[in-house]
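Risk register update: the risk of archive-format incompatibility is retired. Evidence:
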Amino acid sequence: SENPIGDTPPERVKTSAYAPFGTELPPGAVIKGDVKCNGAVLRARPDGSDLQVVAWGFRNPYGLEVGADGALYVAMHGFDARGSRPVENAWDSFYKVEEGKWYGWPDYASGVPVTDPQFKTKDNPQPRFLIANHPTDSLPKEIARFNPHAAINGFGFAPSEEWGKPTDAFIAQFGDFTPATGTVDQPQGVKVVKLDTTNGQVTDFITNKLPGQASRRGTGGLEHPSDVAFGPDGAMYITDWGVARISVEGIKLEENSGVVWKVTPAPRSSLPGGPSLLYTILGSLALAGATVFAGWGGASGRAPGPARRPLDGLWTGALAGLVMGLFTMTVAAAALQLPWYAAPRVLATMVMGSAAVANILEFEIVSFIVGVIVLLVLTAILGLGFTLLLRTHARWRQLLAGLLFGLTAWALLQYFVLPILFPLVTEKGFPPLWYAMSFGVFGFALGALLAYLPLVRPGAKPPLEERVT
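Archived output:
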């Protein structure tokens, strides 16, 4: 792995499993166990004495509760596709804890060996076993598997019939932090599910109107639900981290965005907060109407047909797209503490899928170039559409229409087109505010290019302010 200690050589260091950093052991070395281990469920007396291992071999046992049957249950995060031994496509798992059992970490994911080809990551070797003599080949069976990176966290059992059977567990799914932890084809988690622990059946209990974090859609709702508990009043309480994102400096949390949701078993209850889909539709229609009004202008200054040639729209759209790209790769990326090359790689998911954002904090030339091409094609098409709409010769109207057109394109793409066709763009890209600013820059640049460059269509009237009377 890379050497995180200082800037002096060596840049990379070899470390054996279960050994101190920088210690390389020969094959067949025996590592003495320690009760104070990780990846295990431990128990002790209230004063901390008599520490014992209940079960081990868990990758990340996050949630832990005692069920109505007196048994211990655990929610476990699966492997991540990062570090010196990345493992892709590993499920999260929910187990009933059996004392003295080994659950497979670090060589099995939900009972499947990491040597299986499905766990290989792009540009990395197939994971190999770290333990030569596994405690057993018969691993405990999970009650349920969850999609990779759904991040099943804390949970609570139904306390009364109002909520269901006492064997029903309500589990908070934190949601994925990909591409820092791996790759997904669509947003995962960000909801509360109900698990029947007697048969493994999982049903959604609380979800946002659209998949993924609510802030990515400009609506109210769940961001990163982390735990579920039932209070003495019989209500469900959900802790939610709030708005969180990955940057080059790690996880960044938005101040005052965390929340505790209170949920009562009333019929047709819903999460409060945020504009509804109706408001989003009305806002988009208002932007579109304002764009048409500004772009057509008054009757005296309106051309009988498009005020610019379609070809002008194609190349000015692409040029304005480059301006938007420079804005996103400098101002926006710096403000969000992301690498300058991250934005084009997110756009590349429209062609390459989740592979485009694998290891997004590192520069990768192919996905970067593909993202730039996608940007140019998309903005050229938008530029063409704008010139077909534009009728006015007044420069100020062209500037205003360009800005409004950019914001209209943002609203339609952000809330309607991309979440359905390319959800990774909205989920793994910038927050809506920065997308809106980026498309505003595009629209203004497009309007300015068409208004001030010598692109007057042959036979068309010159701009009003340049006519000689």
